[in-house]
Amino acid sequence: MQPVLDDRPISLAEYEEIARGCLQKVAYDYFAGASWDGVTLKQNRDSYEQIAIRPRMLVDVTNRDKSLELFGCKLSAPIVIAPMAFQAMAHPDGEIVMAQAAKDAGTVMTTSTLSNYSIEQIAEGSGSELWFQLYVYKDRALTRSLVQRAEAAGCKALVVTVDSPLLGRRENDVRNRFQLPSNLRLGNLVGSSIDKLPAGFADSSLAAYIASLYDPALTWKDLAWFRALTDLPVLVKGILRADDARLAIEHGASGIVVSNHGGRQLDTAIATIRALPEIVEAVNGRCKILIDGGIRRGTDIFKALALGADAVMVGRPLMWGLSVSGRSGAAHVLEILSAELDLTMALSGCPTLDSITDDLVRL
Fold it and tell me: Are 90 and 27 within 8 A, CB to CB?
């Protein structure tokens, strides 16, 4: 009997190519876009390609283990789904399907404040373990309510994004006058006056929304307020400097996400993999470290782990998988990355995650 051929894409790059043809231009430009000239977006990717692996030989790699536990979640590989807004622009069931894919792949999804489905709908519809990403509103009662709802829905961690006092100028969205389709809402805010993006702006409506509602006065002292609101581990997302990493720990952070928002905020900001070593040194094992931005191959995950990250977050490639074939597409993207990491470990003489050490890479 002839084996059944698998005609699915075989790389993340192929998924993006197909997704571009599946999505409306406004949606593709939103998901793929970056701020200003896209320098940071490009450097996130290029920096991984410039790091060389120095593999070990004659190590028994017959059995390999990529699993770990992170904030009470058992993961099949050190890959977490990054927070991404407006997933129903890629698939009608949006975040619910993405969370189902996370469960299929044995990982956790970080659901966004700006999801099209509410945290309750996502938790109930997927049965998956979730983290909740929080944007801080000027309305602190609303912010408190979001935290309490995330905890009540069973989320395992709170991820506070700190790099968005205003929205980076994403010129494709400005050109497109980005607006959510009329049938979509901000699921976590349904029933309030801010469950849709404002209309009538000759610019990105998301930029107008953030400028009017997010709290640009957020400071480190506010992190203690979050800690008092919840017993959940609090991760601070958007750290690119050693001194900020130390401050995060001093103010109660359980984890740090080294992130430049995928190149969507401050253009020419340092590539995350370049920022990672000084942050690892500053943290010195006192909290967990994740990293996102530019991860497109299992070798990239390997390099991030070698330089001290505990796990990675992946965003855009999951959106391409979601738009191409929904739950199975997103799960397959995770499967590709996990398989590539497994092969990289085997070819580098690393049977476990603990054996991936910094002497295996050269910057």
Answer: yes
- Contacts of residue 193, defined as CB under 8 A and 6 or more positions apart, other chains included, come to none
**If pLDDT is split at 50, 70 and 90, which confidence band does 1 have?**
very low
* Residue 87 placed within a domain: yes
**88 closest CA partner among 172, 18, 185:** 185
What span, in angstroms and rounded, lies between the C-alpha atoms of 185 and 52?
Answer: 44
Q: Mean of the pLDDT values across residues 261-265?
A: 98
Active site residues: 261
Where are any strands of DSSP class E within 225-273? 234-239, 255-258
Contact indicator for 112, 84 with CB cutoff of 8 Å: yes
Average pLDDT over residues 210-238: 93
How many C-alpha atoms does 101 have within 13 Å on its Cβ side? 31
Other CB atoms closer than 10 Å to residue 4's CB: what's the count?
A: 6
Which pLDDT score is estimated for 226? Answer: 85
Here the CATH number for the domain that contains residue 53 is 3.20.20.70
List the domain range (segments joined by +) for residue 111: 12-362
pLDDT of residue 346: 98
Q: Which residue is associated with the tokens 């610019």?
A: 203
Q: Kindly provide the b/e burial profile for residues 213-244, where b requires at least 16 CB atoms within 10 angstroms of the residue's own CB.
A: bbeeebeeebbebbbebbebbbbbbbbbebeb
Please state the separation of Cα 245 from the chain's center in Å: 18
pLDDT score of 200: 79
Answer yes or no: is 259 within a domain.
yes
Is residue 109 within 8 Å of 125, Cβ to Cβ?
no
Question: Can you tell me the distance from the alpha carbon of 301 to that of 344, in angstroms, rounded to the nearest whole number?
Answer: 9
- The verdict on residue 311 lying in a domain is yes
Taking alpha carbons only, the member of 335, 276, 255 closest to residue 79 is 335
CB 219 within 8 A of CB 241: no
